[in-house]
Amino acid sequence: MGMWVGRGRKARRCYGFDEIALVPGAITVNPNEVNTSWEMGNKKYKVPILAAAMDGVVDVGFAIEMSRLGGIAILNLDGVQTRYENPDEILKKIANANPLEATKLVQSLYVKPVKEKLIKKRIQEIKSKKATAAVSTVPQNAERFGEIAQEAGADVFVVQSTVISVHHVSTEYKVIDLKKFIKSMDMPVILGNCVTYNVALELMETNPSAILVGIGPGAACTTRGVLGIGVPQVTATSDVAQARDFHYKKRGVYIPIITDGGMDSGGDICKAFASGADAVMVGSAFARAKEAPGRGYHWGMATPHANLPRGTRIHVGTTGTLEEILLGPARLDDGSQNLVGALMTSMGNIGARDIREMQLTEIIIAPSIKTEGKLMQRVQRVGMGK
């Protein structure tokens, strides 16, 4: 399998969202009658779109509103919300920074250590409104922060790094035993990120509640440029979905996969589900919400890295409320609003009554899907030509 890229060296052709299209089904379904819900940790969620654990996207208020609307927003325990008593002042500084100085400023602001009392405080602030409290941290902090989060009453815990593996090697710090850690937690634990079949299978043997799929596709992420690693999201999702299905046949346990990043429109989200996702996680789409703490700015989770930033601050603007972006009504013509409505309509046209059926959608290679017949939109910079 694959094509020759040099003498004695083959490479596999992989695909991203812009290179494929979904084929309508032989039957159609009333979009209002499709079921978009998904399950994780024996709990059902109405909205299968999660807000990423990024400081420009999620704060306490955003998490509460996302929960009210039926979804999950992940709070970053390694970010400004747990480093500063008043994170809003810090977020304002980042939003007002000169583009040439933004990364340097972010690096300096993230030097201040995380305060464990703020981890507990932020979780309790979310729980006080009877909202879902989902939090995220890197593997090195998982055991310490996990204990605090559990005591504070968190509902979901995410262990997330650029690339996660069961067999991490380090002599500088203690390596977390993922299986032991997950067993010690009284809440669902999500692991990420991965992009390959074999790694996904190994991660699933540790019994997580879900797996995050995606390395470097985010709008504010520069990992692919800085490190040269990553797999386009359609191929990555399809490969990990195959691992999920094999694990289910082998163990009888279904572990949902969450495609994380690379989706900037309703169409991309629909393609992620057709590729095999059970849910998706997005950042820049929600950074545009009035409720987002970034004030129209968005930056990658690895932007603050002291020695090798793998993210940047980008301006996405503020285009509407979280409810408009998630559930509509859409006031823009570019597919960036009413994301759930787009998914429901796509499912109806494909003939999928639920997410599992959406995963069986016929996919075709179609590199002209976004450009065919769209010359006037591109010239006038409207719709798909923006």
Question: What does this entry look like structurally?
Answer:
With 386 residues, the protein is α/β, with parallel strands linked by helices. It has helices at 60-68, 87-96, 102-109, 116-127, 142-152, 178-184, 197-204, 223-226, 233-251, 266-274, 284-287, 322-327, 339-350, 355-358, 375-380, and strands at 3-6, 9-11, 20-22, 38-40, 43-45, 49-51, 72-76, 134-137, 156-160, 189-194, 210-213, 257-260, 279-282, 297-299, 313-315, 363-365.
At a glance:
This protein has 386 residues and is of the alpha/beta class.
Please specify the SSE layout and strand pairing.
Blueprint lengths: L2 E4 L2 E3 L8 E3 L15 E3 L2 E3 L3 E3 L8 H9 L3 E5 L10 H10 L5 H8 L6 H12 L6 E4 L4 H11 L3 E5 L17 H7 L4 E6 L2 H8 L5 E4 L9 H4 L6 H19 L5 E4 L5 H9 L4 E4 L1 H4 L9 E3 L13 E3 L6 H6 L11 H12 L4 H4 L4 E3 L9 H6 L6
Parallel strand pairs: 6-7, 6-13, 7-8, 8-9, 9-10, 10-11, 11-12, 12-13
Antiparallel strand pairs: 1-2, 3-16, 4-5, 14-15
